[in-house]
Design goal:
By secondary structure, the chain is of the alpha+beta class. It is built from 13 helices and 35 strands. An 8-stranded antiparallel β-sheet has the order 6-7-8-9-16-13-12-11, with no helix packed on it. A 5-stranded antiparallel β-sheet has the order 2-5-10-15-14, with no helix packed on it. It starts with a strand and ends with a strand.
């Protein structure tokens, strides 16, 4: 993967037109078939080696039935690069000369990624054969595969596909035969300003970590995947300096700008520098809602949910425009990202320039809550748009304790926490800029929201680890939706809970009904409707677990946090430390020695890849305060580590934590102190 391009195949490297296989760029499948045949047979696969997030090597052998040895004598290597193509090399490692026929069968449907996900294909207008190349075209776009270097093939084309043929390849012992292929194309005209592949380096520091081996590997693999998930906003003026980069939501389905996902990825990465946060904030600020528009669900101040090259039909009546604003959480999260970036040392020129966008976003939050009878931040989706508009956005994301689907309009618990945190943080930022009256109005509104939350969201528990839990949502009649869910874990770091409430939530997060042993279940296993392989009804989400860990550490619930961290890191070892978007919520037992993959999960995925850094920062207990110029360090005991290249106010820090949880920090910025 090299956003906005990627390639997907089975482990033998062959593309057979099945499922989501193919070469992609800008949400368009350029090829779905690229099948190599030697003497009318497929090579026998023997290995696959990742060469980084953007490249992979597939190795196979070609056997000759009449040979007197079982040892392979012809090696086949295919090195595939996202956004480019592949190089095929045949090596004769035997003692006899070989003559063979080489064919590459290629085909395209030029399908939109949404159609691929639904199993639909678009008809191709034509396939054209030309010297050393095949080309496809339709109303959806164009694609081409051509020989960039190496022997020129014969070409033949059909309605949807064609063949590149080298009919007489002769290899003496020790010789190699190589051909380099380039795959390219374009979709229907891409809207001006659509995100592009970055040219600048990754906008974060590369930390040096001495710690738990699992944590170290999780962070390392996550950073590599994040680098491949980067996109850049071409709307930034080149004279303004470095690119505005952000993290795409995930591959293959969401390889684009997603407000909520990109914001969370940037928040998690703040200990490694503020440049990613800056790029994310500016990319979203330029697309902030300006008018009231029903189809896009746009409103003044509202932050974008997702950006696509074109309108797309996602199935089940879901038709989304290219620019879609249907999320209730991206807008308060945008405000908090600016506040936290400010705390970590985002330059004043960017803070001051972005402040008006944050104030407009907060105005949308406040005005939306004022229109609600309970004074809560609630979403009212349009027909044909997303039914649920927070991170749990599947059609059956919200169920009660009886397993019944609960329909919107809904006020979700974590969204109230996001809104409260945004208001408190923005008030502090405004106060630092001398905007005292505006800050005071936000503080009054936030205090009122916190009171309404306490009155509306707590549900008594008949059984469980604590006498009460937080409802996942409040319905239109202000009745709470019963049934414990993971959403309450995201409240712990927002400040909307008092210490007693935090203790109750921590107890629920540690309980086996929610803690699967591999991470935090999205829904309690003790209620009807629980399904360990449901998208939001029992599966484990990597980022959700990491956010809960951040909150537990911040609230001082270190035992509960450590249990979730251990489960998450053990799960990571079974996924080669490339954490998927989500995985099954089955209980960890002797009969279930590994977590099961969720079939359609994005992998890699932005906030999952960033979760290793989030967990690292949480275990260190880092919290900067730029107004007091202090860095609070409150490590979790039993996680000794040394981390270099943490970035605070432009300076690189080293944080050392011993077995007793005592911390030492070196390299602090001038005028700052550790508390």
């Amino acid at each position: 993967m090299a956003a906005p391009a990627f390639a997907a195949s089975s482990r033998d490297g062959q593309l057979r037109g099945e499922r989501a296989e193919g070469f992609y760029d800008h949400d368009r499948r350029l090829l779905h078939t690229l099948c190599l045949l030697l003497d009318d047979r497929e090579p026998e696969p023997i290995g696959v080696q990742p060469l980084g997030p953007h490249q992979v090597r597939f190795t196979a052998v070609h056997r000759y039935p009449r040979d007197r040895t079982d040892d392979p004598t012809l090696i086949v290597e295919r090195v595939r690069t996202a956004g480019d193509g592949e190089t095929i090399t045949l090596r004769n490692i035997g003692t006899l000369g070989r003559r063979l026929r080489v064919e590459l069968v290629a085909a395209s449907d030029l399908a939109d990624i949404a159609d691929v996900k639904r199993g639909h294909r678009r008809p191709v207008v034509r396939c054209t054969a030309a010297p050393a190349s095949l080309a496809w075209s339709s109303r959806a776009g164009r694609a081409r595969i051509r020989v960039l270097s190496g022997p020129e093939p014969e070409t033949s084309g059909g309605p949807e596909g064609g063949t590149l043929t080298w009919s007489r390849v002769v290899l003496r012992p020790g010789e190699c035969w190589t051909v380099q292929l380039r795959v390219g194309g374009s979709a229907i005209p891409t809207p001006p300003g659509h995100p592009v592949a970055p040219t600048d380096p990754a906008p974060w520091n590369d930390p040096v970590i001495e710690s738990d081996r699992r944590l170290k590997r999780l962070v390392r693999r996550g950073l590599a995947d994040l680098s491949a998930l980067r996109l850049a906003d071409p709307q930034r003026d080149a004279t303004e300096g470095s690119e505005d980069q952000f993290i795409a939501a995930g591959c293959p389905w969401y390889l684009t700008l997603f407000g909520r996902d990109s914001i969370w990825s940037a928040r998690m990465m703040l200990p490694l520098g503020t440049d990613l946060a800056r790029g994310t904030l500016w990319s979203l600020a330029r697309r902030q809602g300006r008018v009231h528009e029903h189809y896009r669900e746009e409103a003044p101040g509202r932050i974008l949910h997702e950006l696509r090259p074109a309108e797309a039909q996602h199935g089940h009546g879901l038709l989304l425009p290219a620019s879609y604003y249907g999320s209730v959480d991206a807008t308060p999260l945008f405000v908090t990202l600016l506040v936290e970036a400010w705390q970590w040392g985002l330059p004043d020129k960017d803070v001051d320039a972005l402040l008006p966008y944050a104030e407009r976003a907060m105005a949308w939050v406040v005005e939306t809550s004022k229109r609600d009878e309970g004074g809560l931040l609630r979403y009212y989706p349009r027909a044909g748009g997303l039914r649920h508009q927070s991170w749990k956005d599947s059609d059956d994301a919200v169920r009660d304790a009886e397993g019944r689907h609960i329909e919107p309009p809904l006020a979700l618990c974590e969204v109230q926490g996001y809104a409260y945190e945004a208001a408190m943080g923005l008030a502090r930022l405004q106060h630092s800029r001398g905007r005292y009256e505006a800050a005071q109005r936000l503080l009054v509104w936030a205090a009122s929201l916190r009171k309404r939350f306490a009155e509306a969201f707590w549900i008594p528990a008949r059984n469980g680890p604590a006498p009460r839990y937080v409802a996942i949502a409040v319905g239109h009649d202000l009745s709470p939706v019963s049934g414990p869910a993971s959403n309450m874990g995201q409240l712990l770091s927002t400040g909307i809970l008092d210490p007693e409430g935090s203790a109750d939530v921590a107890a629920w997060l540690a309980h086996p009904d929610l803690n699967s042993g591999w991470g935090l279940r999205s829904r309690s296993a003790a209620v009807p409707g629980f399904n360990p392989l449901s998208y939001h009804g029992g599966s484990v989400w990597t980022h959700d677990t990491a956010i809960a860990v951040q909150g537990l550490c911040a609230a001082g619930h270190h035992k509960e946090a450590s249990a979730l961290v251990d489960g998450l890191l053990d799960a990571a070892s079974h996924f080669s430390y490339r954490m998927p978007e989500l995985y099954a919520g089955d209980a960890r037992t002797e009969d279930s020695p590994a977590p099961l993959a969720y079939p359609a999960a994005c992998r890699p995925q932005g906030w999952s890849a960033a979760s290793g850094v989030a967990v690292l920062s949480a275990l260190l207990g880092l919290k900067p305060d730029i107004t007091r110029q202090t860095l609070s360090v409150n490590p979790v005991p039993r996680w000794p580590m040394t981390v270099r290249e943490i970035v605070l106010a432009g300076r690189c820090l080293t944080v050392e934590v011993d077995k007793e949880g005592e911390a030492k920090v070196s390299g602090m910025p001038e005028g700052w102190r550790v508390t």
